[in-house]
Design goal:
Helices cover about 40% and strands about 15% of the residues. It has about 350 residues and is an alpha/beta fold. The relative contact order is 0.14. The structure holds UDP-4-deoxy-4-formamido-beta-L-arabinopyranose. UDP-4-deoxy-4-formamido-beta-L-arabinopyranose (WQD) binds next to helix 7 and strand 8.
C-alpha cells in the first residue's frame, strides 16, 4: 500500500482530498496543527470512508518534530501540502505570520523529503499568482504578476522555491496545483468548510446569511466592467478539486522521470458573477439571501476564470459537477452545522 502524508488534512480542501485518497486505496497520515480546523473532521472522514486516517498534531514549521514523525513511516510515497495560512485580509494585517508559516513549512518539507526518501510532492497554490490576467480564460503560461497581498506573495515565493529545489534535487518531483475558487461540501454533508469567525469568502457568507446567522450579504461593488457589474470568478466544486489531487498524484507515481515539475490550473472554465451565483443559490435552495451593494473590496480583481485544458488532458480530470448540485451541497452543509449547533446548545 502507498502512504500519502497530507499536511493540513483536517482543513477544507485537505479533508475532502483525504476522503478521495482513501477511496482510491491510499493509506493516509494527516499532519495538522489544528490552528484553523477541528479534530472532529477525522470522525467525518471516518463516517464517509470507514477509515480513520492516522493523525499527527504537528506544526510543519517545527522541523524537529516533523523529522521525528516522518521517521516512524517507511512507506511514504508522497506528500500533499495544504497546510498554510490563507486569508488575504489577515495577511495584509500580519505579513510576518504568513511569510513564516507558509514559507518555513514548505522549506522544512522539501529539506526532509530526500532524507526520508519521499519522492513526490503536490503543492496547493492559487490562481491569485496571476493577479488580474490580461487574457481570459487564463492558462498556465499566463505571466505571474506582482502579488496583491502577502498571502498571494507567499504562494509565488513557494512556487519559486519548489522550482529551484527540483532543479537542484532531481530525485524529487513536484506538481503545483493552482486553484480557482473552491466551493461546496461533500454530498454526505459530513465534511465541509468551517470558516473561523466572520467568513471572508463569498459562499460561506451566503449560506450563513440564508441561515440567519448574518443579517445581509454585502456585495463588494457592482461598478466593474462586467455584464452585471459584479466580479467574475471560476467556482469549482471542492470534491472535483480533491479528485484532481488524486489524479495528479497518480500521474506522478506512474511517471518514470525524475526532477519533474508540472503546473495545472484547476477550475471549471466557467466564469460566474457574484450576482449570478447569488441568484442561482437562492433559486436552487428556495431560500432568500438579503443583500446590499457596497463599495469595492480592496485587492479584489475584476474577473478571472480558468483554462483547465492541460489538466483535463494530462490528468484525465475534469470539474464536471453541475452547479446546481454544488450549491445544494453548500446549503445542506450549512443546515448540518445549524443542527450541530442546536444539539450542542441542547446539551
Ligand atoms: C469572491 C467574490 C468578492 C465576500 C480568495 C483568495 C483565493 C482563495 C479564494 C485561498 C469576490 C465577492 C466576497 C462577500 C462579496 N483563497 N464577495 N461579498 O477573493 O476570489 O479569492 O479566496 O486560497 O486565493 O484570493 O474569493 O470568496 O473572497 O470572493 O461580494 O462577503 O465574491 O468581492 O468578487 P476571492 P472570495
Amino acid at each position: 500500500m502507498s502512504r500519502i502524508v497530507v499536511t493540513g488534512g483536517t482543513g477544507y480542501i485537505g479533508s475532502h482530498t483525504v476522503v478521495e485518497l482513501i477511496q482510491s486505496g491510499f493509506d493516509i497520515t494527516i499532519i495538522d496543527n489544528l490552528s484553523n480546523s477541528e479534530i472532529e473532521v477525522l470522525s467525518g472522514i471516518e463516517r464517509i470512508t470507514g477509515v480513520r486516517p492516522d493523525f499527527e498534531n504537528i506544526d510543519c514549521t517545527d522541523y524537529m518534530n516533523l523529522d521525528k514523525m516522518l521517521e516512524k513511516y517507511t512507506d511514504i510515497e508522497g506528500i500533499i501540502h495544504f497546510a498554510a495560512s490563507k486569508s488575504v485580509g489577515e495577511s495584509v494585517q500580519n505579513p510576518l505570520l504568513y511569510y513564516h508559516n507558509n514559507i518555513s513549512s514548505l522549506i522544512n518539507l522539501l529539506e526532509l523529503m530526500p532524507k526520508h526518501n519521499i519522492r513526490h510532492i503536490v503543492f496547493s497554490s492559487s490562481c491569485t499568482v496571476y493577479g488580474q490576467p490580461d487574457h481570459m480564460p487564463v492558462n498556465e503560461n499566463a505571466p505571474i504578476k506582482p502579488a496583491l497581498s502577502p498571502y498571494g506573495n507567499t504562494k509565488q515565493i513557494c512556487e519559486e522555491i519548489i522550482r529551484d529545489t527540483i532543479h537542484a534535487t532531481p530525485q524529487i518531483n513536484a506538481t503545483i496545483l493552482r486553484y480557482f475558487n473552491p466551493i461546496g461540501a461533500h454530498p454526505t454533508a459530513l465534511i465541509g468548510e468551517l470558516p473561523n469567525g466572520i467568513p471572508n469568502n463569498l459562499l460561506p457568507f451566503i449560506t450563513q446569511t440564508a441561515a440567519g446567522l448574518r443579517s445581509e450579504l454585502r456585495v463588494f461593488g457592482n461598478d466593474y466592467d462586467t455584464p452585471d457589474g459584479s466580479c467574475i470568478r471560476d467556482y469549482i466544486y471542492v470534491v472535483d478539486l480533491a479528485k484532481a489531487h488524486v489524479a495528479a498524484l497518480q500521474h506522478m507515481l506512474a511517471g518514470k522521470k525524475n526532477g519533474q515539475l508540472d503546473y495545472y490550473n484547476l477550475g471549471t472554465g466557467r466564469g460566474l458573477s457574484v450576482l449570478e451565483i447569488l441568484d442561482m443559490f437562492q433559486k436552487v435552495n428556495d431560500v432568500k439571501v438579503p443583500y446590499k451593494i457596497v463599495e469595492r473590496r480592496e485587492g479584489d480583481i475584476e474577473q478571472v476564470w480558468a483554462d483547465s485544458s492541460k489538466a483535463n488532458k494530462e490528468l484525465n480530470w475534469k470539474a464536471d459537477t453541475p452547479l446546481e448540485d454544488i450549491l445544494r451541497s453548500c446549503w445542506q452543509w450549512e443546515l448540518h452545522l445549524k443542527e450541530r449547533r442546536e444539539q450542542a446548545q441542547a446539551q
